[in-house]
User: Which sequence fits this backbone?
């Protein structure tokens, strides 16, 4: 059997030429043979077979190239074309195809090594990385992300529901280049993570990269700054009260010829100023001396109905208050009096926010997360949103935007929740609604 494709091509082309000449001879020559038609038919069949064989030889080259491409596409580099058989041109072709294979294999190995290098860098990073596709399937995640989310493996974003019931919705509401904080409650405790979403295209697939950073320490620093501001407020208030008392008392002590009217006026100033100071100190004492909670079994729906009933007299007639709770019998273990106080403080703020709206609405909600075994109570209103600057300071003691306000309502409520091992947070505040959440 002839192995060389080149030799076979020469033979087939020779046969085509020979058969064509023979047919021409029988058609236009002087041959009067009785078998002319038979010979023409035989040579025509020979031409057809030779043409088919010529195309087959060319297809052998194409099949080798196709085989190379299919093998590379399937990540199969174990093949090798024979370089010691066939004609010189065929051996050269096989050497070329093998070289192409080696170049592609080397490139693939370099890319894999580079990806491994980047994966190692990402895995050692303290920043968590999660890459997922539009269907929610997680393509890649590093060790820091798993540790921050307190889980062993991540394959789909639906697993976020088991980590935290609100995390899944929080992540899927993020838009490209959004950077938002989220307070996460895990078995390790409570931490605040900064989530940033970046979208990009890889090949024909749209992917999203989620980065996570623990900003709890930064928040603690802000909390320390808040206490420093609190100290300044205390110093300012006390000095403003003591200064006139000292000034008036020195005047009364040094004035020898004083009539009754001047004495009464001076004592009235001292009394009024000291009364303001006493009120301020009383507010501070209420904030600083919240007793430890005496927990009892509480039905959440009953608790929220009670709070609604208590606040109704302070709310404008055009403001509607709704109660929405999960229909379950799982109780909440908390200090009823303190939790009522925290909720009432939030309801008063909500009432102030919607008092000028004709369609004011306040919603009291209670939802139980069975996986985390905790209650989340929400106080939501459709009033004016809280500005970004105010949001940063709303939990700072004695910070207030109300004329005549004490500025300790939210601070006391947050302290009550901390004493219960939970948290009070501003979940969102936009043009539609403002939501505060008590997380137990």
Assistant:
């Amino acid at each position: 059997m002839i192995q060389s494709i080149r030799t076979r091509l020469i033979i087939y082309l020779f046969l085509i030429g020979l058969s064509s000449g023979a047919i021409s001879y029988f058609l236009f020559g002087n041959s009067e043979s009785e078998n002319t038609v038979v010979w023409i038919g035989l040579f025509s069949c020979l031409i057809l077979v030779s043409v088919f064989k010529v195309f087959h030889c060319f297809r052998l080259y194409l099949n080798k190239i196709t085989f190379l491409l299919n093998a590379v596409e399937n990540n199969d580099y174990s093949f090798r074309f024979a370089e010691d058989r066939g004609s010189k041109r065929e051996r050269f072709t096989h050497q070329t195809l093998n070289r192409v294979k080696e170049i592609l294999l080397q490139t693939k190995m370099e890319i894999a090594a580079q990806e491994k290098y980047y994966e190692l860098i990402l895995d050692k990073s303290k920043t968590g990385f999660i890459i997922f596709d539009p269907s929610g399937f997680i393509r890649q995640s590093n060790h820091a992300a798993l540790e921050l989310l307190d889980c062993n493996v991540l394959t789909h974003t639906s697993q976020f529901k088991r980590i935290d019931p609100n995390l899944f919705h929080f992540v899927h509401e993020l838009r490209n280049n959004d950077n938002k904080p989220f307070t996460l409650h895990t078995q390790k405790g409570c931490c605040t993570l900064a989530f940033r979403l970046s979208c990009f295209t890889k090949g024909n697939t749209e992917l999203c990269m989620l980065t996570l950073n623990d900003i709890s320490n930064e928040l603690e620093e802000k909390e320390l700054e808040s206490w420093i501001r609190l100290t300044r407020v205390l110093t300012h208030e006390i000095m403003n009260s003591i200064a006139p008392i000292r000034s008036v008392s020195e005047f009364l002590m040094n004035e020898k010829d004083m009539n009754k009217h001047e004495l009464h006026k001076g004592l009235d100033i001292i009394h009024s100023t000291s009364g303001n100071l006493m009120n301020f100190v009383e507010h501070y004492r209420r904030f600083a001396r919240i007793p430890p909670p005496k927990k009892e079994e509480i039905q959440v729906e009953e608790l929220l109905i009670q709070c609604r009933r208590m606040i109704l007299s302070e709310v404008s007639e055009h403001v509607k208050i709704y109660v929405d709770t999960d229909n379950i019998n799982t109780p909440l273990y908390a200090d009823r009096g303190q939790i009522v106080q925290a909720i009432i403080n939030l309801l008063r703020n909500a009432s102030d926010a919607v008092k000028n709206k004709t369609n004011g609405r306040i919603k009291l909600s209670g939802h139980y997360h069975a996986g985390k075994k905790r209650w989340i109570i929400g106080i939501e209103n459709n009033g004016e949103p809280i500005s970004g600057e105010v949001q940063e300071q709303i939990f700072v003691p004695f910070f207030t935007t109300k004329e005549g306000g004490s500025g300790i309502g939210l601070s006391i409520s947050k302290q009550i929740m901390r004493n219960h091992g939970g948290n009070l947070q501003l979940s969102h505040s936009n043009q539609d609604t403002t939501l505060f959440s008590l997380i137990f």
